Amino acid sequence: MLLVLLSIVILISSASLALCLGRNASRAQDAGAYGAAAASAAGLIPALQVLLTGTAETISFPWPVPLGSFTFTLDPLSAFFLVPLYILTGLSAVYGVDYLKNYAGRKPLGLAWAAFNILTAAMVLVFTAGNAVLFMLGWELMAAASFLLVLFEHEKPQVRRAAFIYLTAGGAGALMLLAAFSLLGAGSAALDFSSFPSPSRGIASAVFLLALCGFGLKAGFIPLHVWLPEAHPAAPSQVSAVMSGIMIKTGIYGLIRVLGFIKPWEEWWGWTLLIIGAVSCLLGALFALAQHELKRVLAYSSIENIGIILLALGLGMAGAACGADALAGLAFGGALLHVLNHALFKGLLFMGAGSVLHGAGTAELEALGGLAKRMPRTAPLFLAGSAAACALPPLNGFAGEFLVYLGAFRSLNSAGSTAIAGVVSGLALASAGALAAAAFTRAGGAAFLGEPRTERAAKAREAGPLMLFSMRALVLLCLLCGLAAPLLLAPLGRAVASGFGLSFSAAAAGAASVPLLYVSAGGLLLLALIALAAARRSAFLGVKMPAAGPTWDCGYAAPSARMQYGASSFSQPLTDFFQPILRKLGQYPVISEYFPGRASFSSEAQAVFFNAVYLPAAVRIRNLAFRFSWLQHGRLQLYIMYIVVTLLGLLLWKL
Amino acid sequence: MHTFAELIIVFVILLDLALAVTGSLSSCIRLVALQGVVAGLLPLLAGSGAPHARAVVFALVIVTLKGAVFPRLLMRARDKSGARRDVEPLISYPASILLCLGAFIASSWLGSRLPLPQAGVAWIVPASLATIFTGFLLITTRSKAITQVLGYLVIENGIYIFGLALFVEQPLMVELAILLDVFVAVFVMGIAIFHISREFDHIDTAELSELNDWRRGEYGK
Amino acid sequence: MEIIKPLLQCLAALLLSPLLAGVINRVKAFFSGRRGQPLLQLYLELYKLSRKTPVYSRTTTWVFKAGPVIGLSALLAALAVLPFAGRPSFLTFEGDFIFLLYLLGLARFVTVLAALDTGSAFEGMGASREMQFAVFAEPAFFLGLAALARVTGQGSLAGMFGALTGESWRTAAPVLALLTASFFIVLLAENSRVPADDPNTHLELTMIHEAMALDHSGPELAYILYGAALKLWLFASLIACMVLPRHSGSWVLDSALFGLALLGMAAAVGVVESIMARLRLTKVPYLLITAFAFSSLALIFQLGR
């Protein structure tokens, strides 16, 4: 526990150091990165210890703030979120040293590092806070620090716009959380998590809805996701990795915590989460398929994965409400395991996208191509991350989804609505998986394979050694978590027990241990078979020297890079099919003559929800607000009169 | 024998799905006829023991009407009208099939809620409701007048199966009344379509709406 | 020894799977009045290809070479999950069909990447279509398996097919018939057979799976062809397990019957290929959505039972 506090102290002091050393870019980089790495090392020890032993620790200091107290709790659930947090922030910091070198002199790197370390510290605070005031402090600090990081390239108008949307979403979410915590703690002396009274049914439902919206605005599931695909790509890549990998999980963490306060759960809560999760994972994958920029693809894929986590939570709650403990435990375990796995592979993918951006200067898919030749070390790492994101064995994405599937199939043989919940979640997972596979083959293929489509892509250069180190470490972790999933089951069970209840973890451990063992056996078998097939291939080849030639284009003699299938042509059959949902904008050339002249084609993925729902709503609210603009006229005397009138009114009301 | 009857019910539902995705007008007519024949034979196959003589006669009448007379009339109307040979749907075929599936899910939920006497054959109520929904689907999402007639026929098939669920072997009174209605409807619409097409050269319902009193351009000048 | 039987079963799959393609070709030849290729043609081709020196495009990287290797390995691993005549193979556990489904996904993933690695317009086209059809085929296949799990109350493939008996066909005939139809459509689409794709048109704009292998040669092509044969065997044996539920109790007799059923499946594919034309490309999703409708109907039936 003390080591966690120490990590916070290290982070804050290295942040101030980086800020002070801001003049000298390389010193500031060192201060920030060393601080973050040291904090990760310090924090990982107690987090792992708690996961391995299962004992929760609490430290409490008094705090003069009303209702507040410095209460830190490190239970297995917190620890399960802290582990990916420390791993990812530490590796991102290492990655950032190389990545930010390009910006030295042009950008205030000291400020960036300070914001990064404060962000990390704030997230540690959020995951360990045992008091609502402290939690909200961490929450707001996190929003502020990440807002600064999103604004890193503030000279671009779309970045400023993204940051503004992000700020608005964060503020709205925090307001709802304040309301939820106030409802929960009504009547108690301090807003300590341990002292929340058990709420009545009506209050519990209100708290559930408020927490769902408040935390949902941070987690970014549909329809509260509009800020995510704008803000995540705008930040520097190692920050995107942290934001997508772990920061959006603070929403999931908060939701799980609040769900712990409002037991017993109603069945409709579970269904709400299930439906939102299913919609998020399907639409997230579909939107990812239509994006033209690598980091936006990844951002939408984060929405998909948050949807999967939420869907699993919903399935578990629906099952728990019906008394199916094994099913619920499997689903909860799957949700938590996917939190860890998603942090690992999404961090890896964002770093890969950052390397592309760093090496080629652009992440537009239509401008890339052929990077596997120019960045031979990054390409396999990114492609492995894509495979993990598609939940392909033997990598780690599969294990979490497999647990959810197991839960879904458990529910199939029970009666009534639980069976339907299982079918819906399984179907959503399978369809989203197929869509995600299309999205990631498209992104990976367009960026790394084939011939370069532009001069910039042709001149791309390999990422720096520290960047490669971070990505390699993450790939290794992805493979390990995939193959050693049965070993993760014990800590996972402790996290489930502390987050949801003891009965679930016991039931889930019995149901999941044997299948997971077989899954890793299957993964090892697969690796062995790959080695065998590769050895057999080289035996077939023997001493023969393979010939080299041009790509066989069905007899066409002068193939050019422009003839390749691009990203938009790759996904066109699917995006056309789902056009009623995607509503791409674009133009097709219409050929009407025998010898058509120059033609142009364009297609653009629009932010459907933002343009169709939020923008009209915002315009309407603004118009409504203008009607009251006569109240705000700028005359100070009248403003003071408002205050006086309000105070008098309050006085009269209380008399 | 209930498994056999269930298979027939499944066949009826598959015919619904096929109707939702069939593009060609003539195969649509044939599918409707086939569905009518299957529905007509259902009481003979689903009942236990030897069927009643009256039921046999009745089934024969239905099969001739729905399997031979109606399709003949409709085919004639189609040929005479000289319209395009496809059904010209207003929504895409995948959307149609998903709507049809949704209708089936909704009707199986509805079937479990309706206070009906236990039917001998499983799924007969959901199947009938789904057939009625498919009929509505054909009427609302296809642009031609002739598909509307087809939709009415499908609805009639559904109502017939529904009646079967209520009283196996004695759907006579209900059925006779409906059949009469539908017969008149097909007859009238067949003639009407024929005449309209002679006047206007096509049978698109969108054009029929121009027959009202409101004339474009003259109003509000 | 319980290890012997799964070993023999896997060996049978490894050795006999190229035979199915031969049967299909012979049936097609019979329908068009030709004598056709020898039954063992694919074996000969595999042997020939394994001895050839490959030609690699200068555009390609390691991805191109890794594709066939990983793809074939994924299918071989899937073989370890696949039940044989309703009997378990090496890996039988609750939810093993999910593993199978994702192994097939892995094979598709690497094949598509290998195709994109050539930078050829044709292979990109094939890859794009492969992914498109997978999006429609996967939910259909998944729902079908869910319905089967519900019918039998089992959680593993071998458990499901082992629990299927003649009795279940008597009580749940509509469900099983719908599932068989759905799986057959998925088989046709996943194995690039008519009406979804035409395995004979190597140089047409309409082809899907064959287009992705245009640049592969030598041992890599042999891997791809062998992988395709294994995939056909995999889907065919799922269907054969379903339509052949009777267990005589004798392992030898069951296996022999199962082998015959597999040959029958291949003949059925050949018949479909001979009497049907390939669908227009835009219609193929409709075919798969039909399979999806079949699966979901079966599931709804079973849920309401």
Quickly describe the structure.
Chain B has 221 residues and is an all-alpha fold.
Please specify the SSE layout and strand pairing.
The complex is a heterotrimer of chains A (655), B (221) and C (305).
Chain A: H1 2-20, H2 25-53, E1 57-62, E2 69-74, H3 76-99, H4 109-128, H5 132-150, H6 157-185, H7 201-219, H8 228-234, H9 237-247, H10 249-261, H11 267-290, H12 294-321, H13 325-360, H14 371-374, H15 378-389, H16 397-412, H17 417-448, H18 455-458, H19 465-483, H20 485-499, H21 502-541, E3 547-549, H22 567-577, H23 579-582, E4 585-587, E5 602-604, H24 608-627, H25 636-654
Antiparallel strand pairs in A: 1-2, 4-5
Chain B: H1 2-21, H2 25-46, H3 53-81, H4 93-113, H5 124-141, H6 145-166, H7 172-200, H8 205-208
Chain C: H1 4-31, H2 41-51, E1 55-57, H3 62-79, H4 96-117, H5 121-152, H6 157-163, H7 166-171, H8 173-190, H9 209-212, H10 218-243, H11 251-275, H12 284-304
Helix pairs in contact in C: 1-10, 1-11, 2-10, 3-4, 3-10, 4-5, 5-6, 5-8, 5-12, 8-10, 8-12, 10-11
Structure description:
The complex is a heterotrimer of chains A (655), B (221) and C (305). With 655 residues, chain A is mainly α. Chain A has helices at 2-20, 25-53, 76-99, 109-128, 132-150, 157-185, 201-219, 228-234, 237-247, 249-261, 267-290, 294-321, 325-360, 371-374, 378-389, 397-412, 417-448, 455-458, 465-483, 485-499, 502-541, 567-577, 579-582, 608-627, 636-654, and strands spanning 57-62, 69-74, 547-549, 585-587, 602-604. Among the domains of chain A are: 272-536, no CATH class; 611-654, no CATH class. In chain A, the strands form 2 sheets. A two-stranded antiparallel ribbon of chain A has the order 1-2. In chain A, strands 4-5 form a two-stranded antiparallel ribbon. The longest helix of chain A is centred in the C-terminal third of the chain and has 40 residues, at 502-541. Chain B is 75% helix and 0% strand. Chain C has 305 residues and is mainly alpha-helical. Chain C is built from 12 helices and 1 strand, in the order H-H-E-H-H-H-H-H-H-H-H-H-H. Chain C has helices at 4-31, 41-51, 62-79, 96-117, 121-152, 157-163, 166-171, 173-190, 209-212, 218-243, 251-275, 284-304, and one strand at 55-57. Chain C is globular, with a radius of gyration of 19 Å. Chain C starts with a helix and ends with a helix. Strand 3 (547-549) of chain A pairs parallel with strand 1 (55-57) of chain C.
